[in-house]
Design goal:
Distance between the termini: 45 Å
Structural class: alpha/beta
Order of helices and strands: HHHEEEHEHEHEHEEHEHEHH
Largest sheet: 8 strands, parallel, barrel
Strand content: 15-25%
Number of strands: 10
Radius of gyration: 17 Å
Oligomer: single chain
Low-confidence stretches: none
Helix content: 40-55%
Mean pLDDT: 95
Length: 260
C-alpha cells in the first residue's frame, strides 16, 4: 500500500464523516457559495505565473513550517506578485484545514487553489463553500472518466481545475475542458525530482494548454530552465515555506527573477 493509497483511504473516511455532519444544501448556504470566483487561468497568464503555496508539512518532508499564519503569508504572496495562492486543506498528512482558506478569503483578491485529494463530488461543494476559486485533480488517484465528470461539476460551480499528472500514462486523463495542467517534477513513488521528465511530458500536451510546473523548484536556475522550456506557471511551496519568513523569501525570489 503506497502513501497515496493510505491518504485516499483516510480521505474517504473524512468525507463520509463530513457528509453525516453537513449536507450539500447547508454548504450552499455558506457565506462564500454565491461569490463570483477569480480566474486562476487568467491570473497565471497575466501575472508572475507563480502559484505560491501555504503548506505546513508533508509526508515526505515532515514539518516544513508550522510557525507562520496563512493570512500573513498569503497577504505577502499577493503583495509581491503571486498569480494565485495554493492552500493545503488536508489535515492528517499536511497539517491543513478549511480555516486556512476561510481566514484568508476576505483579505486577498487573487485566486485560491484548494489543494487536497479530490475523490468525491461532495468536496467540490466544500471547496466552493469555503471560498476557493480552483481545485486540484490528481490523475494518480482518479480515472479519466472521473476527471471528466469532476471537471464538469467544478465548472458548474464556477471553479477552475488544475489537473496534476506525473507519468506519460496519465496524459490520457487530460480533456479539453481542463483549465490548467500541472506536471509534478517529483515521482510519487520514490520522491526523486526530474525536471527533464516534466519537460518531455509537457511537450506531449496540446500547445494551447496552460502548463504548470509543480514541486522540486529549488532555485532561480530551476525556474529559469522550466520557463525557457515553455512552462506558463509554477506551483512553489517548500522553497518559500521552509524559510522563517515565507513572504520575504518570495519577495526576494520575485526580485531576482526581474533582475535576470
Amino acid at each position: 500500500m503506497t502513501i497515496l493509497d493510505t491518504i485516499i483511504a483516510r480521505k474517504k473516511e473524512e468525507i463520509a464523516a463530513s457528509k453525516a455532519r453537513i449536507s450539500i444544501d447547508q454548504l450552499k448556504n455558506s457565506e462564500f457559495f454565491g461569490r463570483k470566483t477569480f480566474s486562476l487561468k487568467e491570473s497565471v497568464k497575466n501575472k508572475s505565473g507563480i502559484i505560491a503555496e501555504f503548506k505546513r508539512q508533508s509526508p515526505s518532508k515532515g514539518i516544513i513550517n508550522n510557525q507562520v499564519q496563512p493570512l500573513e503569508v498569503a497577504s505577502a504572496y499577493e503583495r509581491f506578485g503571486a498569480s494565485g495562492i495554493s492552500i493545503l486543506t488536508d489535515k492528517d498528512f499536511f497539517g491543513g484545514s478549511f480555516d486556512d482558506i476561510l481566514n484568508v478569503r476576505n483579505h486577498i483578491n487573487i485566486p485560491i487553489l484548494r489543494k487536497d485529494f479530490m475523490v468525491d463530488e461532495y468536496q467540490f461543494y466544500e471547496a466552493k463553500s469555503i471560498g476557493a476559486d480552483a481545485v486540484l485533480l490528481i490523475a494518480a488517484c482518479l480515472s479519466p472518466n472521473q476527471v471528466q465528470e469532476f471537471t464538469e461539476l467544478a465548472h458548474e460551480l464556477d471553479l477552475e481545475v488544475l489537473l496534476e499528472i506525473h507519468t506519460e500514462e496519465e496524459l490520457g486523463h487530460f480533456n479539453a475542458n481542463i483549465d490548467l495542467v500541472g506536471i509534478n517534477n517529483r515521482n510519487l513513488k520514490d520522491f526523486k525530482v526530474d525536471l527533464q521528465h516534466s519537460v518531455l511530458l509537457k511537450d506531449q500536451l496540446p500547445k494551447d494548454v496552460l502548463s504548470v510546473a509543480e514541486s522540486g523548484i529549488y532555485n532561480i536556475e530551476d525556474f529559469k530552465y522550466l520557463k525557457e522550456k515553455g512552462f506558463d506557471g509554477f506551483l512553489m511551496g517548500e522553497y518559500f515555506m521552509k524559510n522563517e519568513d515565507p513572504g520575504n523569501k518570495f519577495s526576494e525570489f520575485i526580485s531576482n527573477i526581474a533582475i535576470q
